[in-house]
# Entry
Amino acid sequence: MTLKVPYLRRRDRVTSRIISQSEQQRSERSLSGDGIGDIELGFHHQFQRTSPSMPYLIANVVFKAPTGLSPFEVDRDERGLAEELPTGSGFWSVEPSVTAIFRSDPAVLYGSLGYTWNIRDDVRESVMTGAGPRRIGTVDPGDAIGLGFGMGLSLNETTSFSLGYSHRYVTRTQFELDTFGRTNPLQIGAFQFGLSSRLSNRTAFNMTLSLGVTEDAPDVRLNVRVPLTFRIFD
# Structure
């Protein structure tokens, strides 16, 4: 069982350009946000291998609670532009997945396949837009199918690095904003480079660099984590 209680500190810079007949003006805005993110509770089970040539199979299911600041709860100005960044999705979700791990010394090959079910909800929030306040009704954030594969290589007893690729297909988001609307599906693919080092028996350092290869993926994303391990039952 795993429990994740993330604390997020975000900072974005938004550049916009105003096009007129005589000149082009460009403005920049800086947005930030920090606080508790969406808490995750996960359960994992490893199946026994029937033969040494078979990979290790691990079944996972993760439940996520909307404990972070929702995108519908951030402060906005009179034009409807956000003045802060959300730290959560605003929706409950369930994510079952299966992971396969195959040892091929000195490397470890891995692959995963999962499905994310984002549960729709009645938001019941009024959002300021350029045309005045508009009320948001039911929102279905869409579901996602994700897969990933790659290779991990141990450098020594405490340090390893990994190379991989991940891809997620996100279905349409459907919402009620005075009238019914929907967004386009998303294709989010990225190459991932990771570095992991065990600092102690209970503490590790993980760093992952993701480079987006599809239009919907962020160009560059850097994640740094310091997970702590606690034993509740010996």
Q: What stands out?
A: The chain has one domain: 2-225.
